[in-house]
Specification:
Layout: E1 8-16, E2 26-33, E3 39-47, H1 55-60, E4 69-75, H2 80-89, E5 92-93, E6 101-108, E7 111-118, H3 121-138, E8 145-153, E9 156-165, E10 170-175, E11 178-182, H4 184-194, E12 198-199, E13 213-217, E14 223-225, E15 230-231, H5 239-251
Antiparallel strand pairs: 1-2, 1-6, 2-3, 3-4, 5-7, 6-7, 8-9, 8-13, 9-10, 10-11, 12-15, 13-14
Length: 253
């Protein structure tokens, strides 16, 4: 089914993390409505099965004691086009999602077209995560994602940063006091890779290194050296090299 912006007036995304254990297990419902031209969203997010955990067990995993969140309000309409593009290229599946996943309900001119299970589960889950992040930024619950990077070559130190604004799907790359917009999809793929390897915080520094090498800080104030403090988890996927090459290309454009 191919629907245009004129016929598809909204989507409802519902997610269940399935077999993931608490405190990570959660469900959410994200309703998106652009029937009046602007984009309105309603988010209900609930963390599940925490009853048998102690407060310490929840806090030790980086959560709070009340991570549930509900929101209703506008979102930048720039998200409508990528939603339509993803919807129109999706192939729908007959498989169930008993072990967790996301479903999509299309609203065509306000009419519910029924719940569908997308075959490209990861793409829809990433889209939903991006939309939730956009909501958090819009309401100032969270700041935009910012990653700093330093490359030290011989006597040359090159510093740069990437700031990802989910609220309006804009990415700003800054180097030597000058900034420019860079491609959204390229950046999101690079950020996925940035958060793939292991980060060893026990050897992290509060300042960037000055010796030859590559260093990264992912928004929490701690600098890690790629290859020493940042190491690959999967031997078949060299995330560290891909991070280096991704930032090298941006630095030398």
């Amino acid at each position: 089914m191919t629907l245009s912006k004129n016929t598809l007036t909204g989507l409802v995304l519902e997610y269940d993390s399935g077999i993931i254990p608490p405190p990570y297990s959660h469900v959410f419902r994200l309703a998106l409505d652009w029937s009046k031209g602007d984009l309105d969203v309603v988010l209900d997010l609930h963390y599940t099965d925490r009853e048998d955990l102690t407060q310490e067990e929840i806090l030790d995993e980086g959560f709070t004691l009340n991570d549930d969140y509900s929101h209703k309000g506008p979102l930048n309409s720039i998200w409508i086009t990528p939603l339509l593009q993803l919807f129109n290229k999706t192939k729908w599946s007959n498989k169930d999602i008993d072990e967790g996943g996301i479903t999509v309900t299309a609203l065509e001119k306000g009419k519910n077209e029924g719940v569908k299970i997308p075959g490209n589960q990861e793409a829809w889950q990433l889209m939903a995560q991006d939309l939730i992040q956009a909501i958090y930024e819009t309401v100032k619950k969270e700041a935009p994602l910012q990653v700093h990077y330093r490359l030290v070559e011989s006597d040359t130190i090159s510093d740069c940063s990437i700031t990802v604004h989910f609220s309006n799907r804009e990415v700003i790359f800054e180097k030597s006091g000058t900034s420019r917009k860079i491609n959204w999809d390229y950046t999101i793929q690079l950020m996925k890779i940035v958060f793939t390897p292991d980060y060893h915080y026990e050897i992290a520094k509060e300042e960037a290194g000055k010796k030859r090498g590559a260093y990264i800080e992912c928004g929490d104030g701690y600098w890690h050296e790629l290859g020493k403090g940042v190491v690959n988890i999967d031997p078949s996927f060299d995330a560290v090299s891909k991070i280096k090459s991704g930032f090298y290309d941006l630095l030398h454009e």
